[in-house]
Design goal:
It contains 23 helices and eight strands. By secondary structure, it is of the alpha+beta class.
Length: 786
């Protein structure tokens, strides 16, 4: 940080300059008018010459002779000047820079030389024919101006002291804001405090005028020196009020730039000192010297003020370059946009060079054009600061809005679950575009303030108006398209939400609404792109024609794709299938999980996912339309009673109605009767009408109940087995079959190993034995025996 002694020496230097130059100049009004007293005789002599005809003619001839001589000399010098070697188009860039540097150095040297002569003229008026110093007038003017300065600042500081509680209250109110209201409270509080500050400055200015007019000097008249000071006081304090809006050092709630109190006090103090030094020096000291002493002396003092200000500003910039870089790097880490992060980091590395270049430019312009350059630079700087400040304020507001997530009410989230996601995706993007446009507008306004770009003239041209109009139209088109998409997509989502709208949507509604949403997105994007291209001046006629040709070529080259789409359209129009239906399509049976305009995705029972293009679909088998049937065929042995079996089937259906599946039955049991006399069974068919999609579960439950009922009634359900038939004679007798049956293989094996079996003790059965007519458990090996 800059030591306080440097600021003190600058203040002392300014007051010393006021004493050395302003006050002696105040004592010279009479002396400065003395040269005009000798002008009277010269004017009378000239009048006498013109009144005499002979002398008038002689004067005319002398003037013509002088004109001829001057014209010849001018032509010679003009020829020398316009020689090819010195032609402007033949002058190199290095020569331009050398000439400009030489002119600046010459002007600075001339002003310093004139300053020295003027100072010597004030100190030794007899040697340098300069005006003398009237000590009485000097002391009177010094006292009067000092009283005006003291009185004005006393009134001003007294009013600010009286306003201190109000500023504290406003700052406290600003700091109570939370969330989104914090920035709004800050802006409102700063605006109110700035208005109060301006009122205090205006009252101080009015009080100083009243004191200078009626209490100091001649009553009822305001001296020129007091008027210059009061005008400078008004301008400088208004600039300081603007600085306090950005860097308030005493009130944390009235500071627009987010920084701590110590940093704000440091920068506010530096900028206020620099503003006061340059302001009072150029607006009070230089005009008084110009008016009362000489313009040369005024130019020299102005140059001296600007040199001291340049040294002071450069010193401050170099001392704070690292701290400012660290602050900008920290700000870059918080930026949400990549261009902002890169720009802030780059600014942190070069900001001190830019600041020094700006100060040097102001110094050079004040040397080359001291009469008009400084006011123009001051106005341009003030305009730039206001423009950049407003731009930063708006950009900061947008950044806070972008960084905060949009939260909807619970009821709205329940009705439209995806609306919050869409808003958080589209609105921050739109605000980023607006922030970029604000950056461009700020840059254009700053260039316009410095005269590098005439914004009004550019907008007056057809190209300027066209660009602005196109940008606005494109933004409006994109905003309307986004709003239409959000509205229609939310409406579709509302219809698909089972908790809202008309309840659970049908599968057809889900499929058609999903397809409509996809088609709407494609159509909206296409139309928006076409309108935007047409708005920015691109002829979309050839694009549409080219798209038609490309579409025709694609139609010939991708006939399968066209067939897919056409077949898919008719399948959807005819409501052949919907998402969630169990269908058989293209030889694949499963659940339709996804339907598009070109294909269907099916998940089979094994979990395999199949994508079937509609061009390969000849038949659509849908198991989910209106109702489903469980068709069951149950075989009984030939010896069983068919009527008893049908009765047991009906009892099993009654058990099914009483179970948890009863609500899925749509009609009584239908017994189709005996459908076949098969090889080993009599088949009876039944049909159960169920709700769509439940026929398979109903069938499994009914099969279980039929088995239980048949077992309880002793009805045999045939199963595959083998019967050995040895034939019969005509009289009904059959030859004996020598068959040995081992009741226990393990026991028989043990017996065989210990006592060999003989044919005498083996049991022998005849074929005509009744036990051979029906096999029992002894005739079949158990699984353990196998």
């Amino acid at each position: 940080m800059l030591k306080p002694s440097l600021r003190s020496w600058l203040g002392y230097g300014l007051w010393l300059a006021l004493v050395l130059f302003t006050l002696p100049a105040l004592a010279q009004p009479a002396a400065s008018a003395s040269p005009d007293a000798d002008a009277g005789p010269a004017y009378s002599t000239l009048a006498d010459l013109l009144e005499n005809d002979a002398s008038r003619q002689q004067l005319i001839e002398e003037l013509r002779r002088l004109a001829d001589t001057t014209g010849a000399a001018g032509q010679a010098s003009g020829a020398a000047t316009t020689s090819p070697a010195a032609a402007p188009e033949n002058v190199s860039l290095a020569r331009h820079i050398a000439e400009m540097t030489s002119d600046i150095a010459s002007d600075a040297g001339t002003q310093l030389h004139n300053l020295g002569r003027a100072l010597m003229g004030i100190v030794s008026p007899q040697d340098h024919a300069g005006p003398g110093i009237d000590l009485a007038a000097l002391s009177s003017a010094a006292i009067n101006l000092t009283l005006v300065i003291v009185a004005t600042f006393a009134v001003f500081f007294l009013l600010r002291r009286l306003m201190h509680p109000l500023f504290v209250r406003i700052s406290h109110w600003s700091q109570q804001g939370e969330g989104r209201s914090a920035l709004l409270r800050l802006v409102v509080a700063v605006a109110i405090a700035a208005l109060v500050d301006v009122v205090v400055i205006a009252l101080g200015y009015v009080g100083g005028n009243l004191i200078a007019t009626f209490a100091i000097g001649e009553s009822g008249s305001l001296s020129t020196q007091a008027s210059l000071f009061l005008n400078a006081f008004l301008v400088i304090e208004l600039v300081k009020a603007a600085l306090r809006m950005l860097l308030s050092s005493h009130y944390d709630g009235l500071r627009l730039i987010p920084t701590n109190a110590a940093t704000a006090a440091h920068w506010n103090r530096w900028l206020a000192t620099l503003t006061g030094f340059v302001g009072y020096g150029m607006l009070v000291l230089v005009p008084i010297v110009n008016f009362n002493l000489s313009p040369a002396l005024g130019k020299g003092i102005g140059l001296l003020v600007m040199i001291l200000a340049f040294i002071y500003a450069t010193t401050m910039v170099l001392r704070n370059r690292q701290a400012m870089r660290e602050a900008l790097d920290a700000k870059a880490e918080q930026a949400t946009m990549s261009p902002s992060r890169v720009g802030l980091r780059l600014l942190g590395r070069v900001w001190h060079w830019l600041a020094i270049a700006y100060c040097l430019m102001v110094l050079l312009v004040s040397i080359v054009r001291p009469e008009s350059a400084l006011p123009d630079v001051a106005i341009a700087t003030l305009q730039s600061l206001v423009i950049v400040g407003v731009g930063l304020l708006i950009s900061g507001s947008l950044t806070q809005i972008i960084g905060r997530r949009i939260t909807l009410s619970d009821e709205l989230r329940r009705r439209l679950p995806l609306l919050e996601v869409r808003l958080n995706a589209y609105i921050p993007t739109f605000l980023k575009v607006i922030r970029t446009i604000i950056l461009v507008v700020v840059a254009m306004l700053v260039l316009n303030a410095w005269g590098a770009f005439d914004l009004a003239a550019w907008y007056a041209t057809e190209a300027g108006r066209g660009i602005v109009s196109k940008v606005i139209d494109v933004i409006v088109i994109l905003a309307v398209a986004a709003a239409v998409w959000i509205a229609l997509a939310s409406l579709i989502e509302h219809r698909l939400n089972p908790e809202t709208g008309s309840g659970e949507p049908s599968a057809r509604a889900k499929t058609l609404l999903s397809l409509f949403r996809n088609a709407l997105a494609i159509a909206l994007v296409t139309m928006t792109a076409m309108i935007v291209l047409a708005e920015i001046g691109i002829n979309i006629g050839p694009l549409i024609a080219g798209a038609g040709v490309i579409g025709l070529a694609i139609g010939f080259g991708a006939q399968k794709l066209v067939q897919d789409i056409i077949t898919g359209v008719f399948i959807q129009v005819e409501n052949a299938m919907n998402t969630g239906d169990v269908v058989t399509v293209g030889g694949v049976t499963g659940t339709a999980e996804r339907l598009s305009i070109r294909s269907v995705g099916i998940r089979d029972l094994a979990g395999t996912y199949h994508i079937v293009p509609f061009s390969s679909v000849d038949t659509v088998s849908n198991y989910m339309r209106e109702f489903g049937n469980h068709v069951g065929e149950y075989g009984i042995a030939y010896r069983e009673s068919i009527d008893d079996a049908i009765a047991q089937l009906e009892l099993a259906f009654e058990d099914l109605k009483a179970s948890e599946h009863g609500n899925k039955l749509l009609a009584p049991l239908t017994v189709a009767g005996v459908t076949a006399l098969a090889d080993s069974s009599v088949n009876i068919r039944v049909v159960i009408k169920t709700t769509p999609g439940d026929q398979w579960g109903i069938g499994r439950a009914y099969n279980r109940l039929v088995k239980l009922r048949f077992d309880a009634a002793g009805i045999e359900i045939p199963f595959p087995h083998t019967t050995l038939y040895f034939g019969e004679d005509k009289d009904g007798s059959a030859p004996a079959a020598n068959i040995r049956l081992v009741e226990n293989r393990r026991q028989a094996a043990d017996t065989t190993r210990s006592e060999p079996a003989t044919d005498d003790n083996a049991p022998v059965y005849r074929v005509s034995d009744p036990s051979h007519k029906k096999p029992d458990e002894d005739d079949v090996d158990s699984p353990q025996e196998r």
